[in-house]
Known about the structure:
This protein has about 280 residues and is mainly β. The chain has strands at about 1-5, 5-10, 20-25, 30-35, 45-50, 55-60, 65-75, 80-90, 95, 100-105, 110-115, 120-125, 130-140, 140-145, 170-175, 180-185, 195-200, 205-215, 215-225, 230-240, 260-265, 270. The model has no long low-confidence stretch (mean pLDDT about 90).
Amino acid sequence: MIVTDKYIIFAQVISDTDNTIINIVSKNNLELLETIDTYCFGHANDMAYNSNTDEIYILSGASSSDKITKFKINSNFEITDLQEINLSRKYSSIAYDSDHDYFIGYNSPNIIIMNNKFEEIKSIDAPSNLVHQGISYWNNHIYFSCYERGTITASNPNAIYNNKEKNSSLIYMYDINGNLKRSLYIPNTSISGEIESVSLCGNSDIYFAYNVKIDEKETVSIYKSDVLSKVAKIELTNEITKKSYIQNEERLDLTGGKIKVIYNDNSEESINMNQEGVE
């Protein structure tokens, strides 16, 4: 799944040999606008969007692929300018970093930073016992989504799993230097299903794409959240100047005091404690 300034675009796969279903959804009201099924992109495991060139990239081939196809979607919702590109290794997920003109891929257990020619720049260690899903980038941070299958899989027979957390999700948040900053937990009591991807675009809204069962039928559900704009923690950076008072005669004076507010997207804000609205 990718998010542009107007659309949410995600792929659905019937099989690796059938034509891929590309769904275009309005970003404003989540209404399905168009479905394109004229090309086969294999397993189509993940997508990336270059906002500078308006190009879409999709991992084509198997679930872990060494091929990526780039294309555009014109105003008539037609796919144009297809070009298949060979990669130096297999990736299960892909993202584009518009700030540095980088591509970011996941090749277990590493996040790989690449230049715009898909040449490797550096590797970030990103191990997890959970099932590895989509990757995304926004505002100097990498978002790596995983979910708890609750069972052993043939591809990862030694994984540790937790049945109580089955279908819960965890999104790891790394800075561009590879430092794990925090994780966002989505319990199965809030959303239960297989998270496939996470995407951000232009603000602190975050979009999740899930495979879920509705009436025993597999379907895709998209959720939007403003969790990244919520406060993660508050730190005291400067103490107030006046600390001694005469009881019942003097009112509290917060002059000189400052706090640092840290949000879930890792952005920070310095606030004077005597500022209007601070309680």
